[in-house]
Design brief:
Helix content: over 70%
Strand content: 5-15%
Distance between the termini: 18 Å
Number of strands: 2
Number of helices: 4
Strand order of the largest sheet: 1-2
Order of helices and strands: HHEHHE
Shape: globular
Length: 119
């Protein structure tokens, strides 16, 4: 199921979204201040490319909490809402439920990316 899910995900938009995240990561890495945010964009690109079979482990310390708070107010809420909306649309049909679950996983990561590990 993992292989088939990832192939369908790539064909129906995952590749384009991952490329957009990678581009955003490159743009953010142009400045020194944007490098930590660019790294998180690359993390989202990796998860968006092939989400089936990957897990996200959350951790980090006070530093992650502080930067996640900034991320939350600047971009995290809007990104997470987009993924939640996509997840809800996917969950309308029985066939789309696995894809909706992956969108919800990415919504949580888009909300609090710092300190998270993808495995």
């Amino acid at each position: 199921m993992r292989l088939i899910g990832n192939i369908l995900w790539l064909v129906f938009g995952g590749l384009a979204i991952a490329a957009a995240w990678a581009f955003i990561g490159l743009v953010l890495c142009v400045t020194i201040i944007g490098i930590p945010f660019g790294i998180q964009a690359f993390k989202m690109a990796g998860l968006t490319l092939t989400p089936f079979g990957k897990t996200v482990r959350y951790g980090g310390g006070i530093g992650s909490l502080l930067v996640n708070t900034i991320w939350f107010f600047v971009a995290g809420v809007w990104l997470a809402l987009g993924y939640v909306a996509a997840g809800l649309i996917n969950c309308v049909t029985i066939i789309g439920i696995p894809f909706g679950i992956q969108s919800f996983k990415m919504a949580k990561l888009a909300l609090w990316p710092f300190g998270a590990q993808i495995g």
